[in-house]
Amino acid sequence: MQKIVVLGAGMVGKAIASDLCYDYDVTAVDINEAALQSLESNFPLKIQSVDLSDSAKVKTIVKDFDLVIGAVPGFMGFQTLETVISAGKNIVDISFFDDDPFKLDDLAKKKNVIAVMDCGVAPGMSNVLLGYHDARMQVDNFECYVGGLPVVRSLPFQYKAPFSPVDVIEEYIRPARFVENGNLVIRPALSEPELMEFRNIGTLEAFNTDGLRTLLSTMKHIPNMKEKTLRYPGHIELMRVFRETGFFDEAPVEINGTSIRPIDFTTKLLFPQWKLHKDDYEFTVMKIIISGKEDGKDARYEYHLFDRFDPRTETSSMARTTGYPCTAVARLILEKQFAKTGINPPEFIGADENCFNKILAYQMNRNIYYRLS
Q: DSSP letter at 175?
């Protein structure tokens, strides 16, 4: 039986490990022993308690596995990816890190490693969909609107975080890059809010975030591309107040002789406020618009995702919609249906029709539907 190691046993790491453990020999690794014990008690897998911020330990852990899955927080993501590639191991990664992954392309090719990164929902499935259509038409416009939200709206935040709060805050402070009329445009995160209507939900507000990522280099030929995050109305203004006041700053400040980064203090306070609890139902919503010319005619494709918390498996929607594209691609690699070495963003995989169809079918089998209208 092929062996997989999942680095990170948070909400998404748990969904990934539990989805794969019935068909593969899976080991989950994290420093959080409570999270590991919960996994071991409920699923047929192995666990290891290790500090994944230690590159030497990561390199030792992965050496005996056929595939590595990276599900660590974003600030650890690039280092972990580089360590795994250096160890000569294939990896599928979901961490949302700021560094350019193509810096590791030569290393991955030298080590004969298949490295797929940003393999979640957005980035992830949004890239897969664009990659598929870009290979078959002249795309002139790509728009992605996406968000994960609690069913119950509780003031003041009207939000729950399925990830580490620091990864969510990164969306609110990292400048947003998008493409207008063939030009790269940079605007502040949380800028250009617009209200949008969604069936089964109502009104949400969309704002600029830096979600295009690898598409900015792999899809340079597309003249218009943008990505916006969705929240309940009012969330943007509250986050702007936090940001402009300095609560998200990374430069240390001194308080009564103690030096502390404001962002560390803020995440410490926000974690209990944003934490998703067992009975917190939530949903993921995404709208993708791809338009241009196909066979000499105007073409427009619009995909809609609306997914809810799964009470049967007690798996959050964001964990499902982020984790299962990752496990679908992991299976493609292990089954040798995707074998391109080097750094592979999801748009490369989506361009392959067989891979595209299998990724969609895999998620449909788990009741996740990307409906085309």
A: P
- Supply φ then ψ for residue 298, to 5 degrees: -60, 135
The answer on 133 and 257 residing in a single domain is yes
| Tally of domains within the chain | 2
CA triple 352-211-209, angle to 5 deg: 160
pLDDT tens-place string over residues 344-370? 999 999 999 999 999 999 999 999 999
167 and 258 share one domain: yes
pTM: 0.93
Q: How many residues does the chain have?
A: 373
**What is the rounded distance in angstroms from the CA atom of residue 205 to the CA atom of residue 239?**
13
Instruction: Please list the alpha-helical segments (H only) found in the chain.
Output: 11-20, 33-42, 55-62, 74-86, 105-110, 125-134, 165-173, 215-218, 235-245, 262-274, 317-334, 346-350, 353-364
pLDDT in tens, 59-102: 999 999 999 999 998 889 999 999 999 999 999 999 988 899 99
- Shared domain check, 165 and 64: no
How distant, in Å, are the alpha carbons of 132, 219, 222, 347 from that of 138?
A: 11, 11, 8, 15
Domain assignment present for 16: yes
- Cα distances (angstroms) measured from residue 239 to each of 87, 157, 234, 243, 269: 40, 9, 9, 6, 14
Instruction: Look up the domain containing 19 and give its range.
Output: 3-122+318-372
